[in-house]
Amino acid sequence: MSNLVVSNISDGTTSVGTEYVVNGSAKAWADFDQNVPTLNNSLNVSSATDTSSGLYTVNYSSSFNSTSYAMTGTTRGYHLIEDTATNSKGTSFIELRNWYVSGTAGQRVNIDLLSYSAMYGDLA
Q: pTM for the full model?
């Protein structure tokens, strides 16, 4: 495998250091329907499974090198958070909990509820 080593990337007008591209880009993201759950689109995500009411496991195609990666996400009209007190985060998966705005965990039924999440960190 060959490596291309450059300090900056430019579009001809603006230049950015490659460390921002390599270290600042999402290494995994997913757009999935919570009712099924079915992946609509993703990067480095092999599947999303419904673990229990409002709890989903997102599995990565390529693992992170440690569990010290960051996650951000939302659902349509709701917030999506990682609940580290009760849920797990591994190098090859993350459990995400869907919370109602009122603070009650659970699935919203009979609608097309989509989750959007992105993970940032170093891959193994």
A: 0.74
